[in-house]
Design brief:
mainly alpha; 0% strand
Length: 143
């Protein structure tokens, strides 16, 4: 394992996903300074932190540690909305990193995944209301 490359890879992943150090630190439940030390190599993340980072960046911990992942710099990666709490973000990431759901949602954007995730959590009445709103928005956009 080339640990000297891990800080560089963490920084690349963060930038490719358009995350700030503050955002990643909040998702990990730590301070920005601690996360900054992971990116500079001053500190090594714990196994639990490696797991959280892998979930956050939607890569396996093995890929993160072995640095075998590649980026397509031509693809824009959207960050989830910054208003999500850490617990909410963790549940969201666990849902979409579940092998059953990965295949099902692999071609959706992060925005579509977020919409589908929360759509499943609301009542049928609210779902119908949101669908009607989407229809109205679609009509007004096409005119």
């Amino acid at each position: 394992m080339a640990n000297s490359l891990l800080p560089q890879r963490l920084k690349e992943l963060r930038k490719v996903n358009n995350y700030t150090q503050d955002y990643v630190a909040e998702a990990l439940g730590t301070t920005r300074q601690t996360y900054s030390h992971y990116e500079t190599g001053r500190r090594k993340p714990s196994p639990e932190t490696i797991y959280k980072l892998a979930l956050l960046y939607n890569v396996s911990a093995d890929d993160l540690l072995h640095l075998s992942i590649e980026f397509d710099e031509k693809v824009f990666y959207e960050a989830p909305g910054p208003s999500q709490s850490s617990d909410d973000l963790a549940a969201y990431l666990e849902y979409f990193n579940n092998p059953k759901n990965q295949k099902k949602y692999q071609y959706h954007t992060n925005l579509e995944k977020e919409l589908l995730y929360y759509f499943q959590k609301i009542t049928d009445k609210d779902k119908r209301e949101l669908i009607e709103i989407a229809k109205i928005k679609n009509k007004s956009k096409s005119q």
